[in-house]
Amino acid sequence: MPPGTLEIPTTREIKGERMTRGTSPTRATRVAGGTSLLVALLSAAALTGAAFVTVDLATCGQPARYVHNEQQLELVGGCVDPAELPKIHPEPKKAKPKAAAGAYQP
After folding, report:
1. Which residues are within 8 A (CB) of 67 and not within 5 positions of it... i.e. 6 or more apart?
2. For residue 82, which of 90, 93, 92, 74 has the smallest C-alpha distance?
3. CA angle 71-75-79, nearest 5°?
4. Contact 55, 41 (CB under 8 A)
5. How far apart are alpha carbons 92 and 88 in whole angstroms?
């Protein structure tokens, strides 16, 4: 700088910060943000791929369907083995006892 010229300091020089290439706080923040975004996208892609593989391996040759027989629905086909399902026996309906006239029941 020639003698007699006045150098006006920048705001960063007044605060004592020194600007050097590649070490700015905004660049470090951008790199950290980009890295976390990349990790998140890779994780999402891996989980999506695992879900597709799981569904593909779990499919059966014949899709299941419900058939209405007389008064009941029956599951026909699919991966479900009817022998492995629990048997349901309907219980007889119990009659409600009738209250005496004028009796209070909450």
Report:
1. 73, 74, 75, 76
2. 74
3. 170
4. no
5. 13
Question: For residue range 50-81, what is the model confidence (pLDDT) as tens digits?
Answer: 999 988 887 777 777 889 888 888 878 777 67
pLDDT in tens, 12-43: 555 555 555 555 567 767 777 888 999 999 99
Q: What are the residues whose beta carbons fall under 8 Å from the beta carbon of 87, sequence distance 6 or more?
A: none
Degrees, nearest 5: CA angle 73-74-76:
145
Q: How many CA atoms lie within 13 A of 55 on its CB side?
A: 6
User: What is the 3-state secondary structure of the chain?
Assistant: CCCCCCCCCCHHHHCCCCCCCCCCHHHHHHHHHHHHHHHHHHHHHHHHHHHHHHHHHHCCCCCCEEEEECCEEEEECCCCCHHHCCCCCCCCCCCCCCCCCCCCCC
